[in-house]
Amino acid sequence: MKTSQVTIETLPCEPPSRDQRLASVRTHALAMIEHMQALASDDILERYAAWNEQIGIVQSVVHFIECSTSEEEERNDKALTASALQTFGKLLRDRRNAIGWSRLQLARRAKLSDATIKFIETARHQPSRGTLIRLIGISELNLTWDDVPTSQSAPQPIRQAIPDPVKAEVSSELNCFITPTYDPVRAVMDLGRFLNGAGGHVEQTNAYLDHQSAAAYIGMCQQSPVAASLRACIPVGFAAQHISEYCGKAGLNIIALGVGDGTLEVRLMQHLLSEMPGRPIELCLLDISQPLLSVAYKNATDALSEFSNVHIWGMQGNFHHLPLYTQLYYTPAHTERRRVFSMLGGTLANLDNEPRFFQHSLLGCRRGDLLLLDVQLSKAPNDDAEAIMKYDRTASVGVSASHQSWFNGPIWRHCKDVTQIDYHWRIDQQCPVPGSYALDAIATVKARGRADRQFSMFRFKRYEPTRLREMLESLGWDQLASYPYGIEDKSAAQLLLYRKRNDP
After folding, report:
1. Which residues is 440 bridged to in the sheet?
2. Assigned architecture for domain 71-147
């Protein structure tokens, strides 16, 4: 039997400073989150949601530590001079280069965006107190509060740890629309009845519908190295440059369809703010899942609250019903604004019929509107199933354990007497977009007292780029730019920017 060895450190004569204690607590909390996530992935499925809830509590502790400055203290901090910002930016860049880290590596370690690191190093924006705490907490950088520009100081004791809920409620502005055509309770009940039926295709939005499914999806995105790496390499910065060039001096309305947790949309916004400083930008976050919409809204406001020219609001609804949501198409008179519809995170592939979506759901788009979407490209001709299974890595390795955990949730929660769930990929070669194919995750559900049933739980589509462009052009969308990206294969996917050619 192995025993753990405990190392006892000698206490220093001088007690540690408050910022040292804060950094220590934050480091331990982050380590606890990593261990809890690993334990959650190894535990039984029924306990996954409980694990995520507890992980969220620890994450809130980290956030509390990073924001441990009173409002009065923030107001007393004077704006830094350009010289001070440049000095600190150069110091951070030199320390980063000395340890051989890229901006992206530092951003991931500090739990910040790569744009934030860029803004600090180029003296574009003054770092917030929370950002400084994160950077100083990285031991490899060897930064102290003495290195911070003089208008910033180490965190001081919290004067009001718990805000007044009444004041908070009064000061908060309305930030979300709930569409009248969407009934989430009925949707969950319908899903339960369907899963207790004879089998069939589960519409994609059901994968994120309830809180447990949303938590499982977010957990998969955070814990899967492949998913995180793929999202990190999407070149939204290049897209922001082209959007800025096209829009000129006009303001922007970003309409994010199927926003998920909002990670990619926040990155896009950060790059747009860099390319278009001071320009008014409105960000509408739309998703059918209330839990995901809430997460996306919080992520966006946490990252972008310092920009007075940004307005963020959410809409819970089905993007198949876009023509009914008149708020999205309202532009005040005598204002010059451009609309950008974004479908990031592979949202296009969630559609059962892409051409019909562009013909019906985007009917309200007008000349000059932009569309930004990312797609995975086909690995073999869509009529060669054998080649697809050989060259498409997702198909060749089978349905991953993380995906199975995500898909299994609704089945275990809604189906009666389930004893086992098995998965395999089914290749769909009859997709609406010419040249494309889909990998359907087929769940075989075994239950006591009834025959085995099969459900198509989710699909991952692959597109042939020329045929996809031709389809969109035939529907009035002209391609402005394409940006290839990937992890090992740098051209495995594309980020695409389109412009509406003619009015409907």
Report:
1. 426, 459
2. Orthogonal Bundle (1.10)
Q: What are the pLDDT digits (tens) for 13-36?
A: 455 667 667 767 766 776 676 677
- Tell me the residue ranges of DSSP E strands in 397-492: 418-428, 437-447, 453-462, 477-485
- CATH T-level fold of 170-504: Rossmann fold (3.40.50)
**Percent of the chain clearing pLDDT 90 (strictly above):** 28
Alpha carbon 298 to its chain centroid, in Å, reads 11
- In order, the DSSP letters of 218-276 are HHHHHH-HHHHHHHHT--HHHHHHHHHHHHTT-EEEEEEES-TTSHHHHHHHHHHHHHS
Q: Percentage helix, strand, coil, to 5, in the chain?
A: 50, 20, 35
pTM (predicted TM-score):
0.65
* In the chain, where the domains are located: 18-66, 71-147, 170-504
| Calpha distance 145→192 (Å, rounded) | 55
pLDDT per residue over 359-388, tens digit each?
888 888 888 999 999 999 999 999 999 999
Give the SS3 label for residue 410.
helix
Q: What is the largest CA-CA distance in the chain?
A: 77
Pairing of strands 251-257, 281-287: parallel
